[in-house]
Amino acid sequence: MKVATYNVNGVNGRLDVLLRWLTEAEPDVVVLQELKAPDAKFPVREIEKAGYGAVWHGQKSWNGVAMLARGSEPLLTRKGLPGEHEDEQSRYIEAVIDGIVIGGLYLPNGNPYPGPKFDYKLRWFQRLHSYAAELLDLEVPVILAGDYNVMPTDLDVYKPERWKDDALFRTEVREAFRALVGQGWTDAVRALHPDERIYTFWDYFRNAYGRDAGLRLDHILLSNDLADRLVKAEVDKHVRGWEHTSDHAPVWIELAEKPVRKRRK
């Protein structure tokens, strides 16, 4: 089973890029972020023609998340993260696909720091922390995938000294991510590439992609039973080099049908 996350940075404006990548990569499940489209403008017909069922949680101009399943319809279980009823930002969607609970998320950017946007980011992280613990308590296979807007370590950021006061790299944010993983989740990319400098985002400015001046912002977290089935985790970096592409590249994992790794304690 191939599961991917991709911040598409405008699902309608970059639909040609998304469809091209779906045809090339053939993922079984895709979590999308930054749709930048209300529900009525989600390109469901084009997605279905490409062979995917879809559920989505849109928002005009900003945010928006979706989940695609190849050859089937995702079973929608949740729109929106619990814990703050007045929060109207479309940042979380959840569905069951092939017996796996998959949460797709777009965590707030938080800039500028300090300020209300950063405070909102920390609150959102705490809500995610609380809800993720509930998902683990279900003792079912769970994936939490998306754009977390955090570089967990120095290895995940080009020239980390330049980012120490950015909301993507603040100590509070990295500690929140570590606390989340510490519940019992596996960071799939780091599990298979513990010492490699891997990026998933390159800014449009200053030839960041050409210089490989990137950030690792997009993560796939696995519950223990799925971590035992993890066989591959990669970034389709070349997609970032396509014309009119997103500033993010797709991140994907492959899961075996049966456990192939020793269960983590």
Automatic annotation (TrEMBL):
GO terms for biological process: DNA repair. It comes from the Bacteria. Mg(2+) binds at residues 7, 34, 147, 149, 247-248. Keywords: Hydrolase, Magnesium, Manganese, Metal-binding. The record marks 248 as: Interaction with DNA substrate. GO terms for molecular function: DNA binding; double-stranded DNA 3'-5' DNA exonuclease activity; endonuclease activity; metal ion binding. Belongs to the DNA repair enzymes AP/ExoA family. This is Exodeoxyribonuclease III. It comes from Metarhizobium album. The gene is xth.
